[in-house]
Amino acid sequence: MCPERWSDPEAVSTAAAVLGSRARIDAPLGALTTSRVGGPAAVAFEANGPADLQVVRTAGEASGLDIIVIGRGSNLLVADSGFEGIALFLGEAYGEVEIDQTDATVTAGAAVALPVLARQCASAGIGGLEWAVGVPGSVGGAVRMNAGGHGSDMASCLLDADIADLNGGDAPPPAVNHRVDSLALGYRRSGLADSDVVLRARLRGHPTSPEVAMDRIAEIVRWRRENQPGGQNAGSVFMNPPSDSAGAQIDQAGLRGLRMGSAEVSRVHANFIVSDPGGTAADVVALMDEIRRRVHEHSGVVLQPEVRMVGFEGSPTPA
After folding, report:
1. How are beta strands 41-47 and 83-90 bridged, if at all?
2. Residue from 61, 156, 188, 290 carrying the catalytic annotation
3. What H or E segment, with its residue span, contains residue 27?
4. CATH number (domain holding residue 98)
5. pTM to 2 decimals?
């Protein structure tokens, strides 16, 4: 493992030096996503508090490298060449769940997996968050993209979130509390800046019996097993167009089962792309482009990607 594989090895070395012994050069990234395709990150670092966030911010400023916050990798597609930047992982300090049964609220760290959150709330008799069991992401990522499913989303549950800004400053970035109405949450989007890092979120549920909540969770899990594919995929690839579903548009264009190289439109759900073991991100992107072309040709609808593209030329890189 060495920085020479990257276009700016000096920048990578600078970032690693600032981050210290806990920095990992050429760290696996694509392999940690649910699609399991794509290359490494130039540098990776796990943060467990404000001081660590300050070190990452300093490393970004000193090296000029982009920073991306990685949750559970369920909505990322990493380029085969990797990501020439700093991949920031949030550690155990951001993995706690606190449930207040008196007012049916829950405070969860950004690193908490949504299915874990849903099950803990259900077991405690807190309803209204069962939908989260069907979203294989993290709390922080769910706030950033207003994740949702099964008739609900973060916007309908979120009360407020603690957010830090990695953009400049000499002191550790403070966790500033933001009310939900200040986050501009919409369909699979938010008003968060690229430099904003979600640290914690406070959600509201409602009192219910654990049996009712767990039954609803079992129903959602059963539905997903019957209607969504397993294997290597990044979840829904395209956002639903107004008053329709992306899966239906792809199906109507006759693309279910369409294959390009190692990537295939799922035969179970057409808005999923499943990769073969050892597949490439390039094949996924080529298939996405072909799907968009053929759907537009068939119906005039221009599908917009829901999956985040990381490391591709011209692709947005959060933080």
Report:
1. parallel
2. 188
3. strand 24-27
4. 3.30.465.10
5. 0.92
